[in-house]
Specification:
Elongation Factor Tu (Ef-tu), domain 3, single chain, 442 residues, alpha+beta, 34% helix, Helix Hairpins, OB fold (Dihydrolipoamide Acetyltransferase, E2P)
Length: 442
Amino acid sequence: MSILDLKPEQPTDDEPIVATPVRSTAAQDVAAAARRPWHRRPGVWAAGASVILLMVAAAWLSYDWAESGNVVELSRLETTTVQRGDFVQDVAARGSVIAAVSPTLFATAAGTVHFLVHAGDHVSKGQLLAVVASPLLRNEYERQLATLKSMNAALAEERVKLREELLTSQQEADLDAVRMNAQLRELQRAQAAWKVHVISEQSYEGAYDTLSIARLKFEHARENAHLAQQQILLDLRTRTLARDAQALKVAELASRIDALHVRSPVTGLVADTAQRNTTYVPENAPLVTVVDLSGLAIQFQVAESLAGGIAAGVPAQITLGGQAVKGVVTDIAPSVQDGWVTGRLRFDGVPPPGLRQNEQASVRIILGAHHDVLYMDRGAYISPQTRFVYVVRGTQAVRVPVTLGAASISEIEILQGLQVGESVVISDPRKLHDAPTVKLSK
């Protein structure tokens, strides 16, 4: 077979030409109906609404998660209400009973101490407590006393000598006065004889000269006697002052020796003996402390930030064993130690019976009263230095700037920032993380 045999036969002119159909996918196609635009289809709207709801929910969850750290249960917070009325400013302090008079006695010289009492013994004023044996002080006293006696004897002898010198100078002046008077009488006789010319002119003039010489001797003798008297008095005063100085030294030594017999200055109780019995102690060493139980006081300590208005004369209330008594501040220390200021109170009246030294007491110092002011409970975390507080407003705690004034034990004055009836958080502000707004949950 050749390729010509494969060629289809050509139709003749008498036969019509029949078109052979071409194979296609027409049999598979189906006519589709007309479709709506995509934005008008119901499924698109439903899907869009779902997406929007999901986005809102995600945003709300994100915000709620971000703010979850600033949500605090209201039951965990302590709150108070701002009020208006009278406000008493006071300060709380811790105190203890002390003896207002508790002198400590010291050794006036080095020596061996011998105690006659023990700690806890009751003693009366003037009672002998201890004796200090000091041989050095005793020897010094004896030596100075001997010097004083020697000076007294020398002063007495000097007085006799000075009086003798004074008498001698006075005697010379008196003799010169007698001689002058004798020459005066001789001159008077010469004048009488010269009138009757029974003596020569030379003898008459010689009588004048003799009187002049006698007068000069008398005047000089009188001045010498006066100067001698002043010199004698000056020497006597100098020696007397030296003797008096020695007498003072001896009196001081005698006083120190007498002080070696240590006596109680008050009636009370022996609190402590600072040295062991029959031991050597140096000069000015403490020996024994005596407490006057009739003069008790309260020593208190107050925080430095609250001590500004405390001064002498401020009234106070003292609580001892559940019993409240009145007191008055007597002094306040000008210095601060470890953040505390120390002061002292006296009882305003008769103190309670049965008090013991170092007994603990509660002290309330009243600084003053304020009328018709805003105030609130202060809690443990509110002070006059506080500048911001949290105010409960609905379901939130809002951070509000405030100005606070006088403070008491349980309340504090409000100057600016709050109104009557507002609820203020007074618990630990660290729970609120210093946020401007905190959500509150129940």
